[in-house]
Amino acid sequence: MTQSKPAAAAVATAPPTATRARSPRRSVLFFAFAFAVIADPVSSVAYAIEAALRALHGDLALLLPTMSLVIALVVLVTANYWQLVRRFPKGGGAAAAAGRAFGARWTFLPIGALVVDFVLTIGISIAAAASAVIALFPGLAPYRIPLALLLLVVVAGLTWFGHGGRLLFAVMTVAFVVISVGVLVLGFTAPHTTGHAAATTDPGRSGVLAVALAFPVAMALATGIEAPSTAIAQLGQLDDTHRRRFGRGTLALLLVIVGGLTLALTALAVRLHIGIPGTDSTQIADIAHAAAGPGWLYGTFQLTSSLLLLAAASSSFQAGPGLLKALSGTAERPGVLPPVLGRTNHHHTPYWSVVVYLAAAALIILAAAGQEQELVLFYAVAVFVSFLVGLLAMARFAHRERKTALAWLNGLAAVAVAFTLAVNLLRGWPMLSLAASLLIAAGLYARWTRADRPTGIEDIEARAEAD
Predict the structure, then answer these.
(1) pTM score > 0.85 for this model?
(2) Can you tell me the distance from the alpha carbon of 31 to that of 164, in angstroms, rounded to the nearest whole number?
């Protein structure tokens, strides 16, 4: 946002005390924004490592190389969103990039993928939160599905009150990180016990092939990377320069925290011989229990991980309905979806859109019997469609502007994302996730065409966040 000359002069001549007063407020805003936005990828640590180990058939010897490859790909995808934030400081993400690189009709592919991704994020986060509670209180195991549905309804109900919980989400993220560090320190220095999992389950097989086939499942860890590039649209009180700084700072923080926690917890699992968990536990719970024992630290770890997962679900319960609301249009701007999906309460919550996501998430929780590991297989499909489109768009921009190094970087990342997507689709059932994304994209495109192709569809994600 360009300042007028009087405004610019006022800033230049502002008293030092005013400048110092703004700085702490901006720091608090960055804290609330960054740690709330990264709740989703940080919460993915709770199930991504276990997903990789299951894909490796319990082979601990290959777990660290697998998760290292996952983090390497996360770095490549993050580098692309670093460029997206620079190019689109008002928000927009992959949808804005696709629309401007290939034409407005291509905007619907990442939008369709994100609609499915929001549903899956809610479902898997709620199921994982229920698993964390059951690991702490095994007596609740027979009530897994009712517990998950109860948590789902509670989180959806809290969405009624709008975005007021963003600072609370940030606190939950910080609490989980702090408690995780405590568990890691204790686990590496004075663990309570060790597990009995074998270092390798099949020493005769090809480790390279096993890792290549297993790491795409664990790419659920990458979900949420796109959030900073769209969420910066909420920062209307900042100019473009500061929105870029907030977006890029959040991406850097995401990479450090998610990468650090993932690799550290993976290394601790290998060190303590923590294999595939039993029916009523999770691997991350077993790691914490082996490191800290059954005391208060373990209980706090389970509690904070559960709350963080609920925060991730709540974040998607806000972003998903917000996107449907933006697609429904306004009195001044024609929409693509029926106006009923844009109706809001006095907290600006599009309640019918919330009901749509509530019903969809409930269906997938029931279909998966409340088991988050059943849903992980579908997770790294829809969002990777969005990643792929965004990477191809940024590669095209770089090629047009003769930025050869960036074009090669984006091309390399696109190949890696396409490989990940292909391997996950070859597992069979994840094709449903891709089919749902394509059907929603096609349906939205058809409605957009019937509505005489209203302009500005490329900025739909930015409008959804800004609203």
Answers:
(1) yes
(2) 15
